[in-house]
């Protein structure tokens, strides 16, 4: 193989990489706005499902586990009727992305698991109704996981205590505690907010 052949192969590879890069940039530029719009629609749907009586919300930003998250002051007319906070809990094999709805007294009403990578058949049971329903009417003091039956606190999923704790004691408890500190006690931890 001569130097000319090596130069020819190198030029061909550079051209292939440049064309491939341009194609990827074009696809990303066209898909990115659609992904953003779909995420916004999913967020609106989740908020409506969590607090159906709200007609507007104030959106704020916060950070947990170095992850960007949001919280919403949910309103009906000019009255605050509750809060929704996005929070993350460090699970067995992933961060568990969670939406938590509270009433205006910061008592949990409902949670939704938005995303996770927990073990199928074990940790992914955090998505089941029986687990999520345990959070209804729990204040911040009762967001602890108990191995065994409990009505007062949160019962662990058998074989998935780490995932159970990631939701209850990390994502939900820290999210509710943040709301209490920021909204109720007047701490200022939000970066920005938008009226919707």
Spell out the blueprint of helices and strands.
Elements: H1 3-50, E1 56-64, E2 67-76, E3 79-90, E4 95-103, E5 108-115, H2 129-132, E6 145-146, E7 154-155, H3 161-184, E8 193-195
Parallel strand pairs: 6-7
Antiparallel strand pairs: 1-2, 1-8, 2-3, 3-4, 4-5
Task: Name the descriptors.
196 residues; alpha+beta; 6-stranded antiparallel β-sheet; 28% strand
Would you give an account of this structure?
With 196 residues, the protein is of the alpha+beta class. The protein folds into two domains: 1-50; 53-195, no CATH class. Helix content is 39%, strand content 28%. It contains three helices and eight strands. The protein has helices at residues 3-50, 129-132, 161-184, and strands at residues 56-64, 67-76, 79-90, 95-103, 108-115, 145-146, 154-155, 193-195. A hairpin with a 2-residue loop joins strand 2 (67-76) and strand 3 (79-90). The radius of gyration is 22 Å and the shape is elongated.
